[in-house]
Automatic annotation (TrEMBL):
Keywords: Chitin-binding, Disulfide bond, Glycoprotein, Repeat, Signal
Gene3D superfamilies assigned: Chitin binding domain
InterPro entries: Chitin-bd_dom, Chitin-bd_dom_sf, Chitin_bind-dev_reg
Every Chitin-binding type-2 domain range: 41-96
Signal peptide boundaries: 1-30
Protein name: Chitin-binding type-2 domain-containing protein
Pfam family, one: CBM_14
Top-level taxonomic group: Bacteria
Lineage, uppermost ranks: Bacteria, Bacillati, Actinomycetota, Actinomycetes, Kitasatosporales
């Protein structure tokens, strides 16, 4: 016997709602990411804005709905604040790329 697709919608919707209860909200996710970081997240001034992390060139903040989400560039890349994208370290010109000793941060 084949079950019509409409008959599966009820149980499927119930499963999705049950699983969604275990997922953190956007606000909780943003707070958790920011709390673990050394510097307070920046204030978003425009939707979609990408802001360099002042402490680490591998990280950036992405603004969405007024919340700054902390994100990591792919391995080996630094955030380029001028192009607002992850880029090769030699092209990124990220101010956090040098430490106080003037040595590359990696």
């Amino acid at each position: 016997m084949t079950v019509p697709p409409k008959a599966l919608l009820g149980p499927l919707a119930a499963l999705v709602l049950a699983l969604a209860a275990f997922l953190p909200s956007q606000a909780a996710t943003a707070a958790t990411m920011s709390d673990a970081h050394r510097t307070a997240p920046p204030v978003c001034t425009r939707e979609g804005e990408m802001i360099a992390d002042p402490d680490d060139p591998h990280w950036l903040y992405h603004c969405s709905n007024g919340v700054a989400y902390h994100k990591l560039c792919p391995a080996g890349l630094h955030f380029n604040p001028f192009l607002e994208t992850c880029d090769w370290p030699e092209h990124a010109n990220n101010p956090a790329a040098t430490t106080g000793s003037g040595q590359p941060a990696g």
